[in-house]
């Protein structure tokens, strides 16, 4: 709570909505602190999300419009299938050999 208060004092004028969201959802947001630091680093990163969004854009940007909703779904499916090929790679700086985040659960 002290860290949230310090954040509020320093940034509330610039990021009022974010501070309000933290206050209203604190219990749900702080669940992540129960995980070990290695897991939290993976959770915090937006690289995976940005990568997925980029792949979806890559598959859909050249199309001005889709004829059907099914065509959109197929395009997104192909993008997700492509990006998921990289999900079998070991996590960088995770230790010796490939490990999965799921080993912790």
Notable traits:
single chain, 105 residues, mainly alpha
Explain how this protein is built.
- The structure is a single chain.
- The chain is mostly helical.
- The chain has six helices and no strands.
- Helices cover 58% and strands 0% of the residues.
- The protein has helices spanning 2-11, 16-24, 26-29, 37-44, 47-60, 69-84.
- It is flat.
- The model has no long low-confidence stretch (mean pLDDT 79).
What's the gist of this structure?
The chain is mainly α and 105 residues long. It is 58% helix and 0% strand.
Secondary-structure blueprint:
Layout: H1 2-11, H2 16-24, H3 26-29, H4 37-44, H5 47-60, H6 69-84
Helix pairs in contact: 1-2, 5-6
Radius of gyration: 19 Å
The portion of residues assigned to helices is 55-70%
Order of secondary-structure elements: HHHHHH
Low-confidence segments = none
Structural class: mainly alpha
Strand content: under 5%
Tally of alpha and pi helices: 6
Biggest beta sheet summary:
none
Beta strands, count? 0
Question: Mean pLDDT score, rounded?
Answer: 79
Termini separation comes to: 28 Å
Q: What is the global morphology?
A: flat
């Amino acid at each position: 709570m002290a860290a949230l208060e310090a954040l509020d004092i320093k940034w509330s004028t610039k990021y009022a909505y974010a501070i309000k969201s933290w206050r209203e959802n604190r219990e749900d947001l702080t669940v992540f602190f129960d995980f070990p630091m290695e897991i939290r680093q993976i959770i915090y990163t937006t690289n995976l999300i940005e990568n997925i969004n980029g792949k979806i854009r890559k598959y859909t940007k050249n199309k001005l419009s889709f004829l059907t909703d099914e065509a959109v779904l197929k395009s997104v499916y192909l993008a997700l299938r492509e990006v998921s090929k990289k999900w079998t790679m070991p996590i960088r700086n995770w230790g010796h050999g490939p490990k999965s985040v799921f080993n912790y659960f």
